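TA notes, week 10

Several of you asked for a full example with nothing omitted. So below is the full record: structure tokens for the whole chain, then the designed sequence directly under it. When grading your own attempts, check the secondary structure regions first.
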């Protein structure tokens, strides 16, 4: 089953302000770049049960005529190309659909010759869809859809607690103090295993922000908990430990 999302940048190998992800150098001749896709990667949050993604892959500043091959991280590189570029060409995009490595949820990007920067924007993902041949009433379908909506919960949060880009599940975010955010979710979406990380958008004095989550009495978020909802406190700090408002991602996998 395909799930469309608001496009998000998975990686961009260009250095400086354009960079997203760990790599800041172009792909070299006969070079293969490996990147995870599932989870919180770059500016994207792809759920743990994703089996494949649809991306717009763009080649930038090729130094020679070359092609790029995008393929799952756990298979041998196929003899095929997903994108062909010429030296001196303007940024050249192409849509790519690729399965993810089964164990690690990763993909690989291969460059044949010359050097070339590469960026990728995820526009949707695939999950397994198990079905049978039975017929269901509208009430049964509505109930199943409501149950599915309560599984994974993820979003990117901007300063002051606004949800941006793609998001999933039922949640609310409050912003009681600088650097403090309270994510309120239904109790069935267990908070154990939640993943929280700072976005590359949130910087202070050139030092990346860090986002951590925690529990315990005394949290500004505790009063928001009820019998049906639990709250995940998230604290955003600079590298020096100073509370600061900054964008961050959170991902709560289904229990």
């Amino acid at each position: 089953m395909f799930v469309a999302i608001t496009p998000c940048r998975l990686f961009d190998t260009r250095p400086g302000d354009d960079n997203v992800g760990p790599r800041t150098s172009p792909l070299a001749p006969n070079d293969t770049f490996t990147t995870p896709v599932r989870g919180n990667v770059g500016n994207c949050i792809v759920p743990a049960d994703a089996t494949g993604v649809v991306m717009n892959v763009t080649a930038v500043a090729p130094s020679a005529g070359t092609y790029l091959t995008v393929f799952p991280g756990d298979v041998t590189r196929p003899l095929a190309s997903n994108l062909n570029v010429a030296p001196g060409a303007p940024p050249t995009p192409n849509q790519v659909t690729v399965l993810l490595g089964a164990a690690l949820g990763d993909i690989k990007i291969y460059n044949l010759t010359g050097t070339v920067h590469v960026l990728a924007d995820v526009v949707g993902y695939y999950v397994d869809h198990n079905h049978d041949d039975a017929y269901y009433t509208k009430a049964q379908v509505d109930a199943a859809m409501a149950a599915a909506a309560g599984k994974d919960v993820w979003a990117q949060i901007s300063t002051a607690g606004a949800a941006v880009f793609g998001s999933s599940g039922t949640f609310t975010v409050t912003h009681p103090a600088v650097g403090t955010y309270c994510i309120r979710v239904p109790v069935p979406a267990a908070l154990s295993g939640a993943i929280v990380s700072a976005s590359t958008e949130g910087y202070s004095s050139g030092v990346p922000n860090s986002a951590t989550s925690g529990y315990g009495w005394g949290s500004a978020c505790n009063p928001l908990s009820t019998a049906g909802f639990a709250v995940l406190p998230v604290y955003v700090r600079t590298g020096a430990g100073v509370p600061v408002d900054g964008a961050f991602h959170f991902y709560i996998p289904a229990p």
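Residues 200-207 have pLDDT under 50 and may be disordered. Use that as a sanity check on your answer.
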